[in-house]
Amino acid sequence: MDRLSSMAVFVKAVDLGSFAAVADALDLSGPMVGKHVRFLEDRLGVRLINRTTRRQNLTDFGRAYYERCRVILAEADAADALAADQLAEPRGRLRVTMPVHFGRRCVAPILLELARRYPALELDLSMSDRFADLADDDYDLAIRTGDLEDKSGVIARRVARQRMIICASPSYLDRHGAPRRLDDIRDHPALIYRRSGRVRPWLFPREDQPPVEIMPIGRLRLDDLDAIADAAVAGMGLAWLPSWLVRDRVEAGMLIQLFPDEPEFPYDCHALWLQTPHLPLKVRLAVDALAAALPRVMA
Length: 299
Prior knowledge:
By secondary structure, the protein is of the alpha/beta class.
């Protein structure tokens, strides 16, 4: 007999409390239900259920075996669902939260292309620099940049890396000159990105050593990366920004990258979702699409 089938009959017998109820539920004969249970007992060499004409009770081993069988059957169902996913289309609502600029410029176009390919997929995209809670705010997926909190029950996959560069406008450099060493940055006004009240140091990686940290000094603090880039173009100071954000401005000559020989600090970009026995197809396809396309967008 098939072991998984016998496990399923055994679990159903425990759940329903009688062989007769299992026979009705699974469209089996009463003797066939008993045969499945005896097959497991003979194979294991241990009694699972003590049966009388009036009642049945699990043995101590039978109770432990029942719990393991439930897990095994759930995993088997999840494995079958993976195969079914290969033949199915993602459908239903996909709720995603992401940082404002990174989301609008990098993430949203990829997800919109996914929605174009799959007409049954609905997108609900939220662009906010506030850290939303996946469970409390009912999101299927969150996109994060930078360091992650160690949170149980949440799965994270790195989907890209954004590299940070220092830049300034030609007009600023004509007036103030360009810093020649990293330490010279402290002598220049900085355009500071502040999120959640925190000012982070500017980081410069070093091989096999912690990165060099320089705390920016300036009178202009903003929580909007595009506004910082605009202020840099206007000649208001130095800016430390993702290369993808200022690429067009640099190519147009509106900004100049400083320290081009310094390695660029990489901030990891992650997709996060709640741990689940079976990842929904719509979430899996979205994460795979981001992991495939984001590195090209941000190169």
